[in-house]
Specification:
The chain is of the alpha+beta class. It is built from 18 helices and 23 strands. It folds into four domains: 1-32; 34-43 and 60-227, Penicillin binding protein transpeptidase fold, CATH 1.10.3810; 293-559, DD-peptidase/beta-lactamase superfamily (Beta-lactamase, 3-Layer(aba) Sandwich); 593-671, Immunoglobulin-like (Sandwich). This is peptidoglycan glycosyltransferase.
Amino acid sequence: MRASSRLVRNCTLGLLLTSLIPAGLLVADRFNPPDLHRAEQAALLVQARDHTLLDGHTSRDGFWRLPVESQEVDLTYITLLMMTEDHRFESHPGVDPQALARAIWQLAQRGHIVSGGSTLAMQTSRLLTPHRHTWGGKLRDILRALQLEWRFGRRGVLNLYLTLAPEGTNIEGIRAASLLYFGHEPSHLTPTEAAVLVTLPRRPAALRPDRHPDALLSAALRTLQRATSLRPVAWPTPDTRGVPHDAPELAGHFLSAGRNGVVVTTLDARLQRNARQVLASHPAPLRGTFAALIVDHERQIVAWVGGAEHKAPGNAIDAVLAPRSPGSTLKPFVYGMAFEKGWMTPHTRVLDSRLAIGGYAPKDFDHAFRGEATVSEALQLSLNVPAIQALERVGPSRFMERLSACGVRLRLPENPDGTQSTPSLAIVLGGAGISLYELTMLYAALDHDGHVAPLHREPTGLKSADPAPEIALLSSRANADIRTILRGTAPPAGVASWEGVAFKTGTSYGNRDGWAMASTPQATVGVWAGRPDGTASPGLTGRDTAGPVLAVLLSLLSSSPHTSAPPASAQPHRAIAVLSPALRTLQQRQAPQIIFPRNHSEIESRSSEGTMLPVGLEGSGGHPPYHWYINGIPLDVPPGAQPSWTPDAPGFAHITLADAQNAHATIDIRIR
């Protein structure tokens, strides 16, 4: 009876201990969880579409570390790792008593450590919280190994080790090491590569591939010979050139978005590197830089250069995304909308002469006027007054709304009180901000039947499964007309011809921005030149500064496998003979206009000696010859002379301009 009660008591105690031990482990794990901070910090690697490494950035703690799971690693490596480091990994609870006993016995016999006895779980514990090799540290590793195995299981412990294993310099983990040393994912490793990655963590400093490649390969060979019967096919030295910096802007964008790991982009590695070399080798504007964007026929970005390789003020800003004044580069789309509405055609004749609309009197870039020209000639020569007349008919607000519906937002300048200004006719001459990215979206539409769609910097998968939304900017007819006109634009100096290139340049006010845009059946290319801080660069123009760079970039496309598409067939223009009389010549303003002075303006007309100086007069429109009247008194203007008037004294003046049909315009000014 006494023996029976003792048995019951022992069984009860055993059951109690059996339940308390897991409870104790649970409490210990709850209040002293493993520190996974290092394992959760990943680096960023940016790859081209063919998985060529282009750029990257270390993790926040400065390591090239990428998470990986055991099923993503070649079985050769896993087998070699287990045979070398922990061949009873599948049977022990995180600590191998036999290995520990052997290590202690060898230490007692020989007086120094022969084998460590550490399991992968114990090594993982030390990798999570690095410390010196002491008896206290070993004890903590044992306890933490039990915890890791209990918390994450064997697969979880193995995944942590594969992520944190030191592989020389600041490279950690099997995936980062395989990508940086061998140029491919660890899912396919040769026996040689597997042996290198297994051996390196044993002595990462003494076997660094960049300093001791021979010692590393010899040690890896011994590992392979001891553990398996696999024979190395070749012993290539691991690539230790490090991470290139061929796409710094994209790497920066991914980092700012919180991305890490491996990001595969749509960039073409050859085009990206060659484009950066082209931009770096061309003379930049005064303390300025270039930016370029190349988009293939599928609207995938194959080259993105934001100017970060130039040491220019303000280069922390990616010039591909920074809004700048587009100069004349929006003119084709204004004309296209006018074609679409039937207000003009490519053959319509327009008058390029002095014109004032609502007090706005634009001039051409060279401050000269060409007289009468066709709309095609006006666009190819980038004449300003005809473009203003086209936008007047389209409407600045309506033009902005059409662009906004396509995902392109023009940034209007702010008023002095901080409010946004209203759309004006100056938009077509660069009076609003737009980025190179958005402008390239618009020009890509020229060879996509006038449809705008987002540009992609990461693969979107199968087209049938993930079609890009397209929005019509221009009708098919209007788009074909604009494309044909731009294909007749003269190429940059030194370029004999370029078949099928729709070409347009632009220069912003004050020579701050130079643009060159080209759309072809194969690709769309955009180039911006200027200073990132917005300062003027004397001598900078779109044609002479950005144009030659664009021509070189276009020459890179001929041999690229990612920029081929069937040529688009442009429809012919409507013949002039079939146009209605209303469309053969753009209707001019019937009434004359006073271009200068502006109505209600104040003019300083006294010299330093106190004498009155002449005031120039300029008119336009109506039916010349003109007659000028100052306060009702005719002004004597000799034939062929520029009209001017010398005030008698300061004060107000009423000025009238009358044409040959007695139509007139009047203004009031103040002379000071």
